[in-house]
Design brief:
259 residues, globular, alpha/beta, six-stranded mixed sheet
């Protein structure tokens, strides 16, 4: 009797192992290790973490994990400056980029993009004593943003505005607070703007910045994942993103990190 029971349990274990192996093999990128490039200085999307096993945390990091679970790949995060991300795809140093990056016609000439996975508002940070409070107030002013971001084009479209770029969101906040190069305002995501207004402090611990929602033509951020031209990953990732969108996972992650 015991021998029969043992044999039955062994057979069941082998069957479950086989099913598990088949399920893993069914994932289209099982066994693949992908290099994912990002710029870890975009608050709420990707920043350095002392607790997350990847070394980073934010919305994009959680999306990477969900894509990994669905498609079966393992991954290595490759950090770099935002302005180097597109180049990393062209040189083969990354399999895809997820870093709060938006589709533009210029970028689409050299890389491919996924569907939009997140849409947010644009924020503007200004010194606490500034009278600037709207899109129109930015006309003829010196306005800063992170180098290589779509905020550059937004600023260039503001009548009379002068563009100044810095490496990363934190550097933009400091430039506005200190008036570097005559900068009077800085553009970033609405959530990043809120964070800067709470973290850039003077010696007394008082906020040096305030922020407002930037309302005007083309002032909504749409984020996409970028791939080398012709990458087979585009279709696979889009399929996984659609599933995450349809089952509510994307919405849950966005609310967790951005609201």
């Amino acid at each position: 009797m015991m021998k029969k029971l043992f044999a039955l349990l062994l057979a069941l274990t082998l069957a479950l192992t086989a099913v598990s192996a088949l399920a893993e093999d069914a994932k289209p990128l099982a066994g693949k290790n992908l290099k994912i490039a990002l710029s870890p200085d975009f608050m709420y999307f990707e920043t350095v973490s002392e607790t997350d096993e990847t070394g980073y945390e934010g919305l994009d990091i959680d999306i990477i994990k969900k894509l990994s679970e669905k498609l079966g790949f393992t991954f290595e995060i490759v950090p770099m400056g935002f302005s180097s991300l597109i180049g990393s795809l062209q040189t083969g140093d990354a399999d895809f980029v997820i870093s709060g990056m938006s589709y533009t016609e210029e970028r689409a000439q050299v890389v491919d993009f996924s569907m939009t996975y997140c849409v947010t508002d644009v924020g503007c940070v200004v010194p606490v004593d500034s009278a600037i409070a709207s899109y129109d107030d930015l006309k003829d002013q010196i306005v800063a943003c992170s180098q290589g971001t779509t905020y550059e084009m937004l600023i260039e479209n503001i009548p009379g505005a002068t563009l100044k770029t810095f490496q990363g969101q934190a550097a933009v906040g400091n430039a506005v607070a200190e008036g570097l190069d005559g900068v009077v305002a800085g553009l970033t995501s609405i959530n990043g703007s809120k964070k800067l207004s709470n973290t850039v402090l003077n010696a007394d611990g008082s906020p040096m910045l305030k922020y407002f929602l930037l309302e005007g033509e083309g002032t909504a951020d749409q984020y996409n994942i970028a791939f080398p031209k012709g990458s087979e990953l585009v279709e696979l990732v889009n399929g996984a993103l659609k599933e995450l969108q349809e089952d509510g996972t994307l919405d849950t992650l966005i609310k967790q990190w951005l609201y």
